[in-house]
Amino acid sequence: MKQNRLVNVLFLAPSVFAFVMIIIVPFLFGLFYSMTDWNGVSSEVRFVGFNNFRSLFTAPDFLYSFLITVGYTIINIVLVNVVSFILSLIVTSKIRMRNFYRAGFFVPYLIGGIVLGYIWQFILNSIVVQLGVVTAVEVLQTSFLSRPNTVIWAMSAVNTWQYAGYIMLIYVASIQSIPSSLMEAASVDGANYVSRVFHILIPMMANAFTISLFLTLTTSFKQFDMNLTLTNGGPATRFLEAPVKASQLLAMNIFNTATANRMAEAQAKAVVLFIALVFVSLIQVSVNKKKEVEM
Amino acid sequence: MKKLALRIVTIAALAVVLAVGASCAKKEADKPKDITINMFQLKVEIKDALDAYAAKYSAASPGTTVKVETLGGGGDYGGALKAKVQAGQMPDIFMIEGRGGYDIWKDYIATLDGEPWIKDTDLAFKVDGKVVGFPVAIEGYGLAYNADILAKAGIDPNTLTTRAAYEQAFKTLEAKKRELGIDAPVAMAASVAGGMWWVAGQHNLACYWGGGLAFDDTSVIQNALKGQLDEARFAQYAKYVQLLFNYADKKILLNGSYDDQVGSFAQGRTAFLHQGNWVDPNMKQLGVTFKMGYAPHAFLDTVQTGLYLFAPSWYVVNSQSPNAAAAKAFLNSIASSADGHDYMVNGAGMIPAFKSVTLKPSGQLSQALMAANAKGGNYGVFFGMLPDGAGQNVFGPIFDLFAQSPSKIDQFTADMKKAIAGLPNK
């Protein structure tokens, strides 16, 4: 036993070392810097306590970014999971070419967020607008990305297009692991398709929902790349009497603060993002876990 | 027990290999060698010309090699430089873009006082009377116009020296839109979404900071940094912005990218373009044949004729580098040698900030700028004095909102007043 422990430690050591050096140590450094006035270069680092945090919750741009991120996350969780669940039902049914559809729905996930943002920017700004001009539909003539109240929805739609295929795979795997005898028995008992889905499929898939909701929650909360290329935070809107960027999610707000050489403040925002994310996802996972059933 | 011994031997062998590897790496660094000047710069458009000049310089000066590293494609230069300093690879020559950059990097910036090129330029970067920055080039802007379209519409660009004259010209163009084949009179961009906040929030706003004043008069921006807005002056400026926004192509204004804006002007779909002489290479690329020039941004009620000239960035020498003297010599060679002049003008297509240069750039807008520079009476550009991020995070959204509804001029003024009042706390 003792020798085994040595082996375990040795095998773990490289990953633990890497994990400590690139996750734990920077995280602790980050916590420290969030309480200083460091600008990223200066060798003089003064400790300022919670000053950076105090000013955050009176800054309209940060508050707005926080709220819009929460909103975006909620929209995304609903949209991505509903769409991907429906897709998973389609591709596990007896439809022809279902393997082709499975691959097809998954492909958008393989496109990087940066490229994807540019592609959809072109589609939404040019193609959709041109379509609106040709068909004389006024709603389409102004880009969805240049209207403060539609931009978040456009972003969620693009995110869903990208992410639904991935979540779909999780649901598909889960559906396939449910013994078909259960569904057959229900159908013999006279349950129609809808009630079979709601009373057998969904409860049996609870663990898939836990992981899918967790993934959509965390990725939406940390959304950055597609945000940067698709909207760049624009257009501007008004919040608490101050002009703010309508689609500047939290990660981008942090990035813009950091590139303005306010490193410590950006770090403080990152700490807030971390705490919020841990808090929300712990609640989500514990609620979901209660719904899971053992086979 | 045997197994354990074997394990220990294996681990020991691994450790030895690692240690040898590490010591080898160290030895390499200790080896004495000729001086290498590392330069880190962000102007990707001059990369090839600068590389060629550095190679030429290295060949001509034995014992010195100049290595240029360029950060391409609008990358985060400040971030990259921070990564370098953390890694202990601070370059010998790097760039700053104004006071904000100086404040961040001042521990690494050497004074250049006494360098021979200083008396040859007006645009050296000075802090408290000490020269610290070598001007990379002169850039500048006015409102670029398509001379062919203006001629067809019967507008003389020389008359565009007041806001009233612009209003008249825009009205004429708007009325003759179909006949002239244009979408709108002006290609202006102000959108956060298109990444064009800098056109409005930096370059256009620079008219308010420096327009109509002496070239080095920074009083307006100094007051702003103390939180004060000159309301009478701003009221005139706001009307000018409103005028530009009202007659701008709406799609470009609210959502357009740099390519959309410049492309629209290059294809003759707009008569005016709010951009600087850096669009010359784009014009060449897009095969533009029409004549163009610069009209002043005349926003005051009185006549204004000057263009806005500035050095967008400066080379600075790393004060903590042992090669600082060689780095200074390299910069001096750019300013004072014939090869250096050739590199700046013919190689990189820039307007040199040094008066002794006699070569002429090929771009039409650069030529217009050079002529204005020779004539004098131009205005300074001072947005570099603002705190970092002010243009992008504070003024950008304000201009974007105003562009969405240009009739709300009072709201625009109130927003700006509030933003400027908040500047001292940044």
Q: Residue ranges of chain A: pLDDT <50 for 5 or more in a row?
A: none
Q: Provide the CATH topology of chain A.
A: MetI-like fold
CA-atom Rg of chain A in angstroms: 23 Å
Secondary structure tally, helices of chain A: 13
Rounded Rg of chain B: 25 Å
Largest sheet of chain B: 4 strands, antiparallel
Brief summary:
The complex is a heterodimer of chains A (295) and B (426). Chain A has 295 residues and is mainly alpha-helical.
Could you explain the architecture of this structure?
- The complex is a heterodimer of chains A (295) and B (426).
- Chain A is mainly α.
- Chain A has a single domain, classed as Orthogonal Bundle (MetI-like fold).
- Chain A has 13 helices and two strands, in the order αααααααααααββαα.
- In chain A, strands 1-2 form a two-stranded antiparallel sheet.
- Chain A is globular.
- The model of chain A has no long low-confidence stretch (mean pLDDT 91).
- Chain B contains 18 helices and 13 strands.
- About 2% of the residues of chain B have low confidence.
- Chain B has 426 residues and is an alpha/beta fold.
- Chain B has a four-stranded antiparallel beta sheet, with helices on both faces. Chain B has a four-stranded mixed beta sheet with strand order 8-9-7-10. In chain B, strands 6-11-13 form a three-stranded mixed beta sheet, sandwiched between helices.
- The longest helix of chain B has 29 residues.
- Chain B has two domains: 169 residues, 3-Layer(aba) Sandwich (D-Maltodextrin-Binding Protein, domain 2); 203 residues, Periplasmic binding protein-like II (D-Maltodextrin-Binding Protein, domain 2), CATH 3.40.190.
